Amino acid sequence: MGRKYNTNLQINTAASVPARPAGPDLLYLTGTDKCDLTSAQIQSVRALLQSGGTLFADAAGGSRPFTDSFNQLVAKLFPGEMLQPIKPTSALFSGEFAGATKIARVHLRKFAIASQGGHKKPHLEGIKIGRRWAIIFSPYDIASGLLGTHTWGITGYTPQSSLDLARNIVAYAAAPKK
C-alpha cells in the first residue's frame, strides 16, 4: 500500500488498542480459527470505533470458524446489531474519496468459484455508526490475496481484487469523518 499507493501505514501488532486521537484509524483482524478478545480488548475496540476508527476483518482462507466467531465478537461490541451487506453502490466501491478506486466487479480465486460458484460484485458486510462504516468484514479471504499467493483451497479474492478492496478500505478509514 505504501509503495504502490503512496499511503503512510504504520503497523502496530500490540495486544491492546491505543486510545484515539493518537491511536489508529484502522484496526485489521484476520484469522482461521476462533477470534477471542478479552473484555478489556472489546471495550477498547468499541471505544475506538465510537470515536471514528474502523475495524476491518476478513476470514483468512474463507474460514467458517473465524466468520462465526467474528459474528459473536460483533454481538459483544454492539449488542443487538448484526452485520449488514454493504451495497455495491456504497462509497467503498464507487471510489468517491481520496486514494480510492472504483470497484465495479471483483474476481474470486478458482477454488472459491469451484466450491461456491462465482460472483462479480464485491461482498463485504458491516456495521454503521452514524453515516460511516465502523466495521467492515469480508467472509472471503483478502489476506492471502494481499500476499500475492495463488494457493489452492482458499475461498477468497484474487490478489488484484484483494489489493483493490484493501486499498479502498484503508483510504475510507483515513478519509475525513463526516
Write the layout of secondary structure elements.
Blueprint: H1 2-5, E1 26-31, H2 39-50, E2 54-59, H3 64-77, E3 84-85, H4 91-94, H5 110-116, E4 125-129, E5 132-138, H6 143-147, H7 159-174
Parallel strand pairs: 1-2, 2-5
Antiparallel strand pairs: 3-4, 4-5
Explain this structure:
The protein has 178 residues and is of the alpha/beta class. The protein has a single domain (18-174), classed as Domain of unknown function DUF4159 (Rossmann fold, 3-Layer(aba) Sandwich), CATH 3.40.50.12140. 35% of the residues lie in helices and 15% in strands. It has helices spanning 2-5, 39-50, 64-77, 91-94, 110-116, 143-147, 159-174, and strands at 26-31, 54-59, 84-85, 125-129, 132-138. Strands 1-2-5-4-3 form a 5-stranded mixed beta sheet. It is globular.
